[in-house]
Amino acid sequence: xxxxxxxxxxxxxxxxxxxxxxxxxxxxxxxxxxxxxxxxxxxxxxxxxxxxxxxxxxxxxxxxxxxxxxxxxxxxxxxxxxxxxxxxxxxxxxxxxxxxxxxxxxxxxxxxxxxxxxxxxxxxxxxxxxxxxxxxxxxxxxxxxxxxxxxxxxxxxxxxxxxxxxxxxxxxxxxxxxxxxxxxxxxxxxxxxxxxxxxxxxxxxxxxxxxxxxxxxxxxxxxxxxxxxxxxxxxxxxxxxxxxx
Length: 245
Description:
mainly alpha, coiled coil, SPT17 protein
């Protein structure tokens, strides 16, 4: 009983102190209120900034539309659509058109002795020299880890994707080289000759002891081969006739 009372007093005094916990919770409440007020101010400031950005975007869009439709501006002779004589005062768009400058057209590049260039070709092959084959390509850096699952190693995949080109001898060499000319003569000779030089020997496999053909039971019988399929296609049984006809 004495130990139980002592343990309870010690825990309430030094481990689970009620007053220390109450003080901590009060400090948390104060800190929470301060953070909420800061967040409220930040939200209001963010809302004002978003509103200002929207106004700036809308104003920029209006200026762009004014530059784009600058041809609708009123002249000394003809009033524009935004400056109707039936209005008491011109439309705000009319005032914006007066301040805006018209959009300028992009000038096309003109080369010496040629007309306007619409498309330019970069690194276009001239075909003046033999084709160059890439023998090796550098592998990309592997910064990521191996993905989870039954996948191959990324280095092996990249090596397979960017492996160097290995052209055949016919593709790699020129058609005017001496080996190619020599093979051309051989190819013509092969095309002229027969595919099989061996003469046709009739019944060349007659001497071989193959199994003799055994006719099927339906085809073989005491009276020889049936005529079904060659002479008639319907079986006739006179013994089963009811009448003579």
